[in-house]
Known about the structure:
The radius of gyration is 22 Å and the shape is elongated. The chain has one domain. Helices cover 60% and strands 4% of the residues. The protein has helices at 6-28, 35-60, 66-74, 80-91, 93-96, 112-127, and strands spanning 99-101, 108-110. By secondary structure, it is mostly helical.
Amino acid sequence: MRGAHPFIKIFIGCFVGWFAKTVEYELTGTAWGGIFTILMCPVVAVFWSLKCVIAALLAGLFLRLPIIRNAWVRAGYFPLLLAVAGLMGLIYSNDLGYREIEPISGYSLMAEWPSFFCYFFLVFPFVNLPGEPKLESSPPPLVRTVHQR
């Protein structure tokens, strides 16, 4: 996946964000709102995922700076640990105090900014996974050879 086309990376990032948000909705949504609730959860997850992917693409523009790009490319697959950090933030959001029970519906809601950052860190490495390091061509020789006549 490191050398994958950018659109494939964006699609994978969207899918990962959509899947995680859909699972979160289904696990934390405790109030029954009818069939409409079940049908709208994946649709809302698509919009939330797109929002996080667009933010990850914009933040990924900083990876084009030479100093940051060199470090990012040398990191290999270690940036995927950011996805693990985002996933752990979602899993332990109750313990971290990010979730509150909404009194009217009974939903376990997460505040918008902690939720956004968890999904941002979940999606960012997939969207901006570094490509294969480009091999530098060999430098020109320091000494020119003299052709014999």
